Amino acid sequence: MSLGPGIPYRTLIDSVTHTSHFRSHLSDTCLLHTPCVRAYSPKLLSYKYQTQITGTLKEITHNNMAREMEEVIDAEKLRSEFLQVLRSRRSAEVPLTVEPAKPVANPLFQESPPLVSEAMESCPKANIENIKDLLKEENLYLTTEEGEQGRLPVLILTMKENSHQKKPAIVFLHSTHKYKEWLRPLLEAYASRGYITVAIDSRYHGERASSVTTYRDALISSWKSGDKMPFIYDTVWDLIKLADYLIQREDIDPSRIGITGESLGGMHAWFAAAADTRYAVVVPIIGVQGFRWAIDNDKWQGRVDSIKPVFEAARVDLVKSSIDREVVEKVWDRIAPGLAAQFDSPYTIPVIAPRPLLILNGAEDPRCPLSGLEIPKSKACKAYREANSLDNFKLIAQPGIGHQMTSLMVKEASDWFDRFLKQ
User: Per the database record, which ranges form the Peptidase S9 prolyl oligopeptidase catalytic domain (predicted)?
Assistant: First the structure.
């Protein structure tokens, strides 16, 4: 099936047929922005996924990890395995439905109240008078699975226009403890420039949180019971379902859907794009890192400190006097299987090729150490070079910046999207 001239897509989730198998039609898809990429020939493949995953997740040790770095990454095989892991802790599937919602007056922030983000406020915007009066806002819920967390809150902004021309869309993802409304300055700026802008509440955040400890409690519960995957993976499932919805909209060009996010949102954008090729242009901001590299090089503290309660709970359960490498490795294996192994950045970043990918990090970021990106960067360059699309990949590490989204990053992201989604 085609979404436009020469642009195939794959339906990751069959929301109509509910059987004991998960059927997915996967195809190698790419953007058609450069002559070298236009020659790329898609090939349709088909996979079946069992509802229950038997056996244990394949362990990849540090020794054979180095060996596998030299091997060619099978993108479709990796996606297949990742989707199996995503499904392994899912509640029952339900049809994808849309329910109207009301604007959120007082979003729940799970830390101290946030300040205004100067970086987001600096986002390039069209010079339009009374722009807020000209914006069209939609609030809705999508069902992504059974249960309370299977209700996905979505906020969409676009300009009020009589034109029926399909537009490019961008999905924006918030950082830890924030919510979709926090991203409004970005949504408005991009909407003023002709995009349809989309934001969601990630799992256990915003409308999906009932208290200031909801996300923390979900992480600890995941460690203790292995029931969910609140760190990254569950929201990636939602983003696959979101793509199912976005490609059906009459106002969105399904071949021009971008995705970006900050910190936790950057990780969500990275993994969603690795899993789902319908996200055509990708800009993770202060989110890409090497989880295995951090463990092996004793550089895990910055990331661990960002969600420390779950590691403290694991330390107690493992009868340790302090959080150490073993605690970190066991937590990742429990709450996000494969995160520090076969789904780490050296494997999942390259499979985004040949789609345009811009990675924006701080050169001094302790949560995303720059040294930990050397292997993923090298592997990505190789993948893009082999796809004759090296210009579609870029990594910018802003000097002197730690774990912070800056105005420069916002501007670089804006230029990247305009370059690849406005054509």
Answer: 190-405
∠ Cα 32 421 377 (to 5°)? 75
Q: Does the residue 107 lie in any domain? A: yes
Query: Is residue 74 included in any domain, yes or no?
Result: no
Distance of alpha carbon 221 from alpha carbon 214, whole angstroms = 10
pLDDT tens for residues 334-349? 999 999 999 999 999 9
Say which amino acid occupies 420: F
Other beta carbons less than 10 A from residue 179's beta carbon: 24
CATH of the domain at 386: 3.40.50.1820
Return the residue matching tokens 């990918």.
357
In which band, very low, low, confident or very high, does the pLDDT at 15 lie, cut at 50, 70 and 90? very low
- Residue 242, Cβ density class (10 Å: 0-12 exposed, 13-18 middle, ≥19 buried): buried
pLDDT single digits (tens) 212-257? 999 999 999 999 999 999 999 999 999 999 999 999 999 999 999 9
CA distances 154 to 139, 151, 180, 200, 209, Å, are 6, 10, 8, 5, 15
Contacts of 215 (CB under 8 A, 6+ apart): 110, 176, 177, 203, 204, 205, 209, 230
In a domain, 47, yes or no: no
Q: Bridge partners of 139?
A: 155
User: What is the tally of structural domains in the chain?
Assistant: 1
CA distance 335 to 339: 9
**Residue carrying the six token digits 């439905």:** 97
Distance CA 364, CA 83 (A): 33
* Count of Cβ atoms closer than 10 Å to residue 191 Cβ: 26
Q: What does the pLDDT look like over 22-44, one tens digit per residue?
A: 223 223 333 222 223 322 222 22
Q: Which domain holds residue 140?
A: 98-421
Give how far Cα 367 sits from Cα of 177, 287, 321, 322, 358, Å: 16, 8, 23, 19, 18
Does residue 85 contact residue 233 with C-beta atoms inside 8 Å?
yes
In this structure, is residue 305 part of a structural domain? yes
Question: What kind and span of H or E run contains 294?
Answer: helix 291-296
Q: How many CB atoms lie within 10 A of CB 361?
A: 27
The backbone torsions φ and ψ at residue 225, rounded to the nearest 5 degrees and listed phi first, read -120, -15
Polymer length of the chain? 423
